[in-house]
Fold these 2 entries.
Entry 1:
Amino acid sequence: MEALLEILGELHPEIDFETNDRLIDDKILDSFDIITVIAEINDEYDVAIPAHEITPENFNSAKALYELIERLLDED
Amino acid sequence: MLFTSYGFILFLCVVIGLYYIIPKRFQWKLLLVSSFVFYYFSGWSNLLYISVTIISTYFIGLKLDSLNKKQEIYLKENKGTLSREDKKAYKEKIKAKRWKWLLLCLIFNLGILAVIKYTNFAIANINSIFTLFKMNELSFVNFLLPMGISFYTFQTMGYIIDVYRGKYGPEKNIGKLALFVSFFPQLIQGPISRFDDLSLSLYKEHGFDSKNFSYGFQRVLWGYFKKLVIADRIVVAVLEITKNPDTYDGIFVLVGMVFYAVQLYADFTGGIDITIGIAQMLGIKVKENFIRPYFSKSIVEYWRRWHITMGTWFKDYIFYPLSVCKPMLNLSKSSRNRFGEKIGKRAPVYVATIAVWFTTGIWHGSSWNFIVWGLLNGFVILVSQELEPLYAKFHQKFHVGETFGFRLFQVIRTFLLMSSLRILDCYRDVGVSFKMFGSMFTKLNINELFAGSLLKLGLNISDYIVLLIGVIILITFSLVQRSGSVREKISIKPAILRYTIYVLLFFSIIIFGAYGIGFDSNQFIYNQF
């Protein structure tokens, strides 16, 4: 989770990613940010997030995103 | 059969009448038959194309489902004996098979679209190369472009990709799938619906709901008002200016550009209002396609609010899959090593953005002007993305971000920028478009407008007055709509005021409609796609 928070923090230092759960709904993360985050996650966790998992539910908070990473790692 | 023809009005009355008379379980079947009858009037051969798309997608959807089930059964039956690696290998094998079927469906259906829509464009380009080498030119092929083929093909391909991804199971009833693909109000100009959004209300049994019916009818009237009173009137001046670039340059290009922005908005959003309104009269919910796009403060925001269902389609089925596919992630890695962290991170976004906007351009038409238009949109988006930190610093330093004046400036800037890009759509020729754009700066003589020239564009004083009032109504409507549904707001007004509004709207279409309902001179712009 630490590493994920760091990845997100680099993109938007002004946002508290530990508490914010409206990253997509409030348009904090745009599509360009999402792609950057996915590429970084791929590097950091060695997990590929498929396109169909790019949904508001999975990207609205760091917690949800981390759960997605864990699920994908588990499926792998 | 255009929305503005008498034939369509009669057809609609019969369909709606029958819809609420017949037993509810037959309602979706009636809509299916009506949709095919509606499409038949645009040419019987069109029925063939749409049927091929429906049948191929239906069977491939079932095939994808059967592969899924096969996997489930196999894994269940061999639960105790398979190792983790065996399971993974089996899943990969099934996934590869599913991918092949999906690819077949996409290539087959997008192939039909590509052949019909782009063969002559390809031939024209090949011929220009042949001419250089003094070779014999190829002859053009005479294809009839089925109305709405780009819309229904994209909608159907969205469905099959979702089935492949396991978002939902395939529709088992071919008739129901056929209705989803061919639902007549949205068949020829969208919105591009998603199966999970539309299907539930499309197949549901609907009792007559007077509020829904009345709201739907009001929206249909509003759509006709936009189309017949505004779009079909202003188009005369737009055509006069853009068809005669030698006569009308300089300030007239600016006038044409702004007029075209009004025409396109009134035409396309008007058509979508009619679509959503008809669906609502039938109790069916169709997704919104516009959220006051001309109030956008940036081009990125504009594309989030204009033709929304097309934008999200490109995002979900091209931009994201392309950006996060393995080769793209590898490209990102190698670019980071070669060109540094900053460029490496942006590589997938850049490539995917260019691909999406190239596709968006060519989706709109098989000519270079649309491709250049699409690529320029992508270019402006990427540049604004790069300049964002600079904008943020500027806003912070001068505290202009939230002032009304600055927001108004942003809205006008975005409107002019988008209108400038649309010059490529107006003149349909890349060279002429750039020349005319340039003439706005080199030959800008505002006095020309006050020498009676505006009255030589095919519109008289009363046309301009009607247009001015029409545009004021459009802007007022959008301003009021920001705080909630206009129809809801009207519905709580005293009956006398309410009915006055409805009657005025109705008669303004009859009296001020440029040609009136029944005169098919101008089809909707987006019907061509």
Entry 2:
Amino acid sequence: MTTRQQRVAARGRRLETVAAAVTVLVAGALCAAVPAEPVAERDDRGAGLTMVAEGVSRPDAVDTEPPEAEPFVMPRSAPTRLSLPQLDADIEVFGADAEPDGTPPVPEKDDADRAAWWRGGPSPGQQGPALLVGHLDSVKGPAAFARIGSLKPGAEVVVEREDGSTVTFAVDSVEQYAKDDFPNARVYGPTKTAQLRLITCGGTWTKKDGYDANIVAFATIRS
Amino acid sequence: MQKMRSLATAAASAVIVVGMAAPAFAGGDSGHGGLKLHPSSGGPGTVVEVKALCRDGGHGTVASDAFETSQAQTGRHHDRHHDGRHHDGRHHDDGKNTGGDPRHDDRHHRVFATAKVMHEGLTPGKKYEVTGYCKNHERLTGTFTFTGGVGGAADAGLGGLAAGTESAVPSTTTAAAVAGGLAVTGAAGYFLIWRRRAGGDQA
């Protein structure tokens, strides 16, 4: 026959066992909640670093001359929407002038879900490089061009135009350039075919200077 | 950028209203016939600030094939034009002393107009003449070079993704610390209770 003291002691031991088990379980759960992958990414890329994806950069594809003597071009018409099926993205586009410092137009901070088309240059479908610029991110998170750096060569880029027509481009290459060593001629220079440049930010971000690079997706008209 | 866009809404020429003008100063020391443009070169849509050296007061115009829109800077309000590339310089004399404070009646150029460069139809590398007039119709000239494009990197990121990445570091560290703390606390508590019980049993 057990005494009251023995029963209390037994109950205490059970409670202790349960408490210890709960502690171990909670600790284990918290440890499991710590994501291991971002740590590995930081090791490779550094905090706040945005790079193009592996295998998307094919500079030769941009430099290759077009095979056709008279490539297919379309009359001028402002773009209204941009569709990137690979990224499942559908983005509104608006026309804008160059920034006062002569750089391509960039949407306002509170308009980061849209892309700006530089209306001083060719429209998508006209001969030459049509420039579309979108933010990589807003202050809250990903913006219109957040995943441009992962567009694979051959990926479709569909642009709807004001005249009701649609023009399709195929991505040739996605490249990243330091802002202080930006290849103007390569990105903005004249081309024999109708081309597209999707431009956003990349590289390392600091609070003082923002991003230190641009990511540029080069695409050529397909139809 | 939208602020800049809204600056110029008229077509092709700019009304200038200048407080003071002197024929002797009309040619001035601009080195380019009395008009100074900033920037003096640029691509489509560039907003150009036009300065002039007139001393005799009054008004005038600037005109250029390079400009599609422009807006006068009177110091009080903006006079706008929407009617083509050239004007003859006979309007918008509001009589205000917009540029002629005698204390500043020196050879400094004053901003009297902003203009926006044409989006189409210009030839890259070509210099376009810009013409302006003082009140007495003294002719002023300057040049604008159309460069034909944009240049430089775009500032197209606000840091939300990067900031998120950075903030992820303390959050994971905190979780690990909490987990470790719980485990250590549990173990220590259990050890203390075990010792007390062992002591009680011996007693």
